[in-house]
């Protein structure tokens, strides 16, 4: 009997999209459950208080009677099962390093987008776009510059979860779902090439074309 997967997240790309992209690339069917993005909405509150969310957060992935949470843990689990994990420990560590750097940047933009004091949102987003985003993007570019010139991916010659993590962040938060590389990658040729490489993977491209249009 085939394994069944149930991924539950908001009707957004954001933290749920890397796993959706991984499933798409691997050709794995799953139940893509989406709830409205409303912290006070009935669907979210019912789910939150149902006991199904180990930390009271989503995304969650239900598989074989187990519920997993934390977006990076879910992504790595899917990567290990479906051929998106680098082949040795050192490459895995490098992929983890890159993906965690992306996750740090995602946490920062989320704090700017949804600050405790809403009146600070504009200033925080301006600072993020002026300082944090270009600085971290240059760090990512320098990491890729250390790879051989014929290697497009983060690690080796094969797509990994780190590449998906990178593409998903820049596509969802910076490019707003648009297919062209965002302007911040203009002076980062290795990152721009990676963005296009992931985007143009046939199964990922197919998913992007049919996925629901969302605000984020």
UniProtKB/TrEMBL annotation:
Pfam families hit by this protein: GST_C_3, GST_N
Coiled coil: none
InterPro entries: Glutathione-S-Trfase_C-like (IPR010987), Glutathione-S-Trfase_C_sf (IPR036282), Glutathione_S-Trfase (IPR040079), Glutathione_S-Trfase_N (IPR004045), GST_C (IPR004046), GST_superfamily (IPR050213), Thioredoxin-like_sf (IPR036249)
Record PROSITE patterns: GST_CTER, GST_NTER
Superkingdom of origin organism: Eukaryota
Residue ranges occupied by any GST C-terminal domain in the UniProt entry: 88-216
Protein's GO biological process: glutathione metabolic process
Residue intervals of the GST N-terminal domain: 3-86
Example GO molecular function: glutathione transferase activity
Protein name (record): Hematopoietic prostaglandin D synthase
The encoding gene: HPGDS
